[in-house]
Each structure stands twice: as C-alpha cells, then as structure tokens.
Amino acid sequence: MSVNLKVAYCDYEAAKYAVLNWHYSNRMPKFKQSFLGVWEDERFVGAVLFGRSATPFLGDAYGLKTTECIELTRIALRKHETPVSRIVAIAIRMIKRSSPGLRLVVSYADLNVGHHGGIYQAGNWVYVGGSAKVKQFFFRGSWRNDSSLMRFLKANPAAKKTLNVRSLVAKHKYLYPLDEEMRLLIEPLRKPYPKRAGSLESEAPEFHSGEGRANRTPALKHEEKKTKEKTHRRGRRRRAA
Description:
Elements: E1 5-9, H1 12-22, E2 33-40, E3 43-51, E4 69-77, H2 84-98, E5 104-109, H3 118-122, E6 126-130, E7 134-139, E8 142-144, H4 147-155, E9 165-168, E10 172-177, H5 180-186, H6 218-240
Parallel strand pairs: 4-5
Antiparallel strand pairs: 1-2, 2-3, 3-4, 5-10, 6-10, 7-8, 7-9
C-alpha cells in the first residue's frame, strides 16, 4: 500500500521526540545538527539528523574541510511503510541543496547493537571498513567518551586511573559522495559489504514498543492541529459541493 511521504525540515523538539522514543541511543547529539522530519499520510513517523561529528577530523582523510563533510548522526523512525534507504536519499538531497558546499556524508553502523549498515548498502554507499575501536570510561553514572568527559580528564589527569574503562568493537564506516569528483576519489576505497550479524535486523535503528503513547511535544501537537484543520476544511468543501 502506497503512502504519501513527506520529508521536511523540522524543529528541535520534534527531532528530540523522535530520538528519545525511536532511536536505540535515546540521546540527542551534542553538536550542531540539521533536523529533517518524516511524515507518512500527514502522520509524524520520525526524523533524520545530520551534523558535526564528535571528531573535528571527520573529513581530513579525504582532503576536506569541516564545512565540506557532514555526519548522518541519527535515523529515528517509528513503524513506517517507506523503505529507510529512500527516506535517507531524500534527506541527503535536501541537505545538499541547502548546503551546496558539502561534498561528503559519513555514517556509521554500530556493531555493538547488531547493525551492519543495510540501509547504506541499499543506497549504494561506499563501505570503507571498520572505524577504530572506541574506549569509554564509566563517568558520572554512564559509559562515556564525550567532550564533557574529555574536559574533565584534561583538568584532572590523575582521575583517568580511577575510572573503569572498556573498549567497544569498531563500527562499520560508510561514505556517500555528493559530487562526481568525490565519488572518483573514494570509490577505490570501497570494500565488500559486511553481512548481517546473526539474526539481528540492522537496516533501521531500533524503535521502541508503544511508540506514540508518550505526551506529544509542542511541535507534534502543531502538526496534529494542522492535520485536523485540513480534514475539517476538506469536509466543509465536500458539504458545499
């Protein structure tokens, strides 16, 4: 059954609602982001986020400035009909139009939660292998390697020896070029796509059961109000006909 798909820029609250309810991380990225909402038949079904990476060196290996390289940081969707790869492709086209200086999109499939990058493979992204292993410290009640932790360790170097530490397996790294020159540059880096690990579904980020039962954010209430108003106007037009 076909649905009326809409991908459009949305506000922070709508994106946050999607990430906190329908993405396995339950966390918003710390750095500056662009938020694209996703609707099916005027029903809000999630968001796609692009933004600055946690590392300032994301594009260095490809000769790119920080303004020329962006990371796809979250795909947070509830149950939906449209293939995720199509939603991502539309979102990338919109990001490219709004930021013509961009040349490359980078994203990661997290092996630690069973993802292998099926959505990127479906979109013909270039797989370049695993990223470096990530070291995390147990800090203020959770496992972290974010900027707050780094600032704390810089100011308190001796504390590093007192924190519990763990190493996570590497993430699968995928690249999507936004111009032909960049495609020619990264195509030689392409490696065979990894296969799905075990029976875990890796195409889309996990969504949580019972989605949509939480209190609506102001952004979602606004969308629902617009939908009701449109339905009411259509009803009036039919009665007048």
